[in-house]
Amino acid sequence: MKKLFLVIVILIFIPLGYLISQISPTSFSNEQIHFVIPLETKQVEIIRRLKSENFIRNEKIFSFILSIIRFPGAIEPGAYQLSRNMNTFQIADILLNHPYQKWIVLVPGLRIEQVAERLAKKFNWDSAKTKEFLSAGKEGYMYPDTYLLNTDYSPSDVARRLIANFNEKFDSKIRQDLLNQDVRNDTAVKIASLIERESGGDEDKALIAGIIWNRLDKGMRLQIDATIQYVLGTPNDWWPMVKPPNMKTESPYNTYLYKGLTPGPICNPSLASIKAATYPSETNCIFYLHDRAKQIHCAVTYEEHLNNIEKYLK
């Protein structure tokens, strides 16, 4: 009834002939046009662009029609298939209800379950589709990036798209430089995932990488909290705070119990973390911590590390 009332109001106050002319198609061309709306584009900019590119005739009437179809009529950035022989109602309906592609932003450091959660929310996947994605995906290789993905992609298609992007970023130079160091690609990805969860920012990644390599070379336990978080994580809290009793949790991923690297990556790392694992800083440090401002402080001896704890964390 509310929509009908609004339409009646329009007809009362706007001459019918003028209204028809303003909502009619701008062209007889049925050419399908890929209309991409970048992320963070404001609604007024979208409507202004529709007018300037000759999809609509009247910005104010178009805005009003958007609110009639679905209040408040907000258009989601993404990609849409439009043609200029569509009338204003048809264009509004497509922009509100029928995206051809959607944006998804995957930040570094997410574990594969978190990636699946965000994709499921964006594309309205049910539990079966989410499981399909998890089966097709691979921890550590779901490359964090900004994607414009087809809405008709299957979860397996999406997983392949993310892995393909990883393979593109993990390029031949990185692979060759790792080969020259006699380091396996999967080893670098494991270390990169540890760096991603442990670093306070890109500026300290190479130092953390150097410390991890030093511990591995000395046969020390890595003792990285993020590996325990990976074991303990649940949908309610994928990265829980680690408490002293948790350090005894039985798992091959527990680097407090077992020497060497984890069986697999613990998250999906950024290119910066992959490069840090490939090109670590040369350092004598074995220990490190971050102060409350996320500044890193490393130490060569355990005594120095204890002093850093006293100085920066107490």
Note the run of SSEs as H and E: HHEHHEHEHHEHHHHHHEEH
What do the pLDDT scores average to? Answer: 94
Q: What distance separates the N and C termini?
A: 64 Å
Arrangement of strands in the largest sheet: 1-2-3-4
Which class best fits the helix and strand makeup?
alpha+beta
How many strands appear in the DSSP assignment? 6
Query: What's the domain count?
Result: 3
Major sheet, described briefly?
Answer: 4 strands, antiparallel
Q: Which stretches are low in confidence, meaning pLDDT under 50 for 5 or more residues running?
A: none
Oligomer: single chain
Instruction: Sum up the overall morphology in one term.
Output: elongated
Number of helices: 14
Q: In percent, how much strand structure appears in the residues? A: 5-15%
Q: Whole-number radius of gyration? A: 26 Å
Helix content: 40-55%
List the helices and strands and how they pair.
Blueprint: H1 2-13, H2 16-23, E1 33-36, H3 43-52, H4 59-69, E2 78-82, H5 88-97, E3 101-105, H6 112-123, H7 127-136, E4 146-150, H8 155-169, H9 172-180, H10 185-198, H11 205-217, H12 225-232, H13 271-278, E5 287-290, E6 296-299, H14 302-312
Antiparallel strand pairs: 1-2, 2-3, 3-4, 5-6
Helix pairs in contact: 4-5, 6-7, 7-8, 10-11, 10-13, 11-13
Written description of the protein model:
The chain is α+β, with helices and mostly antiparallel strands. The chain folds into 3 domains: 2-99, Dna Ligase, domain 1 (2-Layer Sandwich); 102-169; 172-283, no CATH class. Helices cover 48% and strands 9% of the residues. The protein contains 14 helices and 6 strands. The protein has helices at residues 2-13, 16-23, 43-52, 59-69, 88-97, 112-123, 127-136, 155-169, 172-180, 185-198, 205-217, 225-232, 271-278, 302-312, and strands spanning 33-36, 78-82, 101-105, 146-150, 287-290, 296-299. A 4-stranded antiparallel sheet has the order 1-2-3-4, with helices on one face. The chain is elongated.
